[in-house]
Amino acid sequence: MAKKNTGPSKAQSQDKNPSKKAAPKSTETASPKTGEANQVEDAKKAEEAKKAEEAKKAAEAEKAKKAAEAEKAKKAAEAEKAKKAAEAETNPTVKRQLEAKALRAKNAKKAAKAAKEKSNKDEETKAAAEKKGGKDTRPVFEDDRGLKYRFKKTAPKSLNIDGRSVKVTDIVKNEEVMLSLVYGNSNFIEQIH
Question: In terms of pTM, does the model score above 0.85?
C-alpha cells in the first residue's frame, strides 16, 4: 500500500508561514542618509542640552555669588551699626551729636512739608485769581514810536531806581525811566501787541 499525503512537506510549510519569514534589515539597507541625519540630530540635541546645563550652572553660580555678597554686606552693616551703638553708649559727646542730628532731620522734614503746603496754597490762589479773569488794570506805557509796554504780572511791586525804592505805577508815569527799561530789554517789561 502506498503512503497517503497528509499535508504539505516541511519545506513547503516554511514558505507559506508568513510569521517565520526573515524581516529585511531596515537600518542598513533602507537609507544610509537617515542614519546620518539621526546622528546629526542627536549630536545637536546633546550639544543643546550641554549648553542648557552650562547656562543653568552659571546662573546658579551667579545667584550664589550674589547671595554671598548680600550676606557679606548685611554682616558689614550690622557690624557698623553695632560699632556706632557701642560708641554712642560710651561717648556722651557722640550721643549728643546724634540726638542733634536727628532733631535737625526732623525739623528739616517739617520745614519742607510747610514749604510744600505753602506753595500749593499759593498756586491755588494764583489759579483762582486767573480763573476770575477780570480786566487787566496794569498801567501801560506808550513810547514815541507808538509801541505799548507794561510790567509783567511776575514783576515786583517796586524797583530800586537810583538808590530809591519806586513803585511800578510811578515808574510807568516816568518816561525817562521807562525808556531806559525798554531799550535795556528789562525782564520785567513786556510789549503789548
Answer: no
